[in-house]
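Deliverable D5.2: sample structural annotation.
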Amino acid sequence: MDTPRLSRLRRNPLTYNCCATQKRFSKMLSRINQMKRAFQILLLVTLMTSPALISAQSSAQIGGEKLVTLTRKPVSKTHPEFTSVTLMPGRGMELLQVTANFPGKGEINVLASPDEATAKKMLDEQDTAFGDLGYRLGAAFLVPYPNRIIGKLSADGKTVTTEWQGHTITLPANNMGHEAGAIRHAMHGLILKAKAEDLKVTDIPGGQQVTGVVHAGDFGGHWLSKTDLDFTIALHADALDVSIVAHNVGKEAEPIAIGWHPYFTLPSGDRTQVRIHIPGEQYALVDNYDNVFPTGQLKPVAGTQYDLRAAEGKALAGNFYDDNWSKLDWKNGAVTVKVIDPAAKYGVAIEGISPEIKTIQMYAPPTQKFVAIEHQYNFADPFGKEWHGMDTGMITLKPGQSTKWHVRLKVFVP
């Protein structure tokens, strides 16, 4: 039945058609708004439940940047699996903690590190200007040189000067021993306080991965040329892969060596029965265990406490170690060190995959319940005259060239 208004609209077809179109447009707009709201809800749920995004978020900050944690759920009821890795982009992508699930035992900390609050206090409040407390916990990355560099000490005692291929390199004198006669020197690289940028967390089959870059430049004026460092840390069930690619993005050649300083926990707490396997045929003599300076002499390990080549490892007992192994035995494309804690039925294998890795450093004081196992390119004091021109493991990167350091962790039941 026609109403007066409808009759008028029908007498004016233009007005009628316009109104009908407007109604259809209003309905269509309503549907679009409903779809938009549904999409917003779906997006919100996705953001809240996405493993990659959840694991990347952290309210805690160290070095002015939020921590990043990758996680995955264990699926095996018979084999140990990695479950998480927490890293500090504000401290050169240093690993704060790695966890692994051992069936029947639960989650175990792979690295010897304090909790986040204690680590923050150490690194944000108590640290030195050069970040030296960074290599006292977790797993710090050491670039462009691991270990010690000895040189001419400046009058104020703040820097040491050394030489490489006719170039003078001046480094922070950030370390020295505790005994009388200890000599101040440079140690453990120049990225302990570096900030990583362009962080990206992605899901990968069975786990997660994070990438980031440290635009190191000339390392605060202490190095030659300019360098970018690309980090990739991938969490899998059966492995944790860690790699750094150093790119010479400058205009002159530069020396580069890469390593790290991971503290591996000893779950049983009984250090004396922990067994270490290091497949090195020779070790480097040092002046003492305070300076720990190389003498330039390399000795065979056979018949000494440094012979850790047995497949089942050798017990640490009460021995002190702060030593460097070389002439490494590579098997299946890797040089593998093992930390075996029989009392805890726990083991971790550290596989050096990059062929540039020439030496293994181990720091294991008898009073502590950890061992530091350091896969690195170089011998200590690589520019030192004590080596008499020997190849000490430093890589020369020309402009545009790159080098990759790659280490893989695995956990097992011995």
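Annotation notes: Residues 148 and 380 are 5 Å apart (CA to CA). The chain is about 15% helix and 40% strand.
The annotation will be released with the project's public dataset once the embargo ends.
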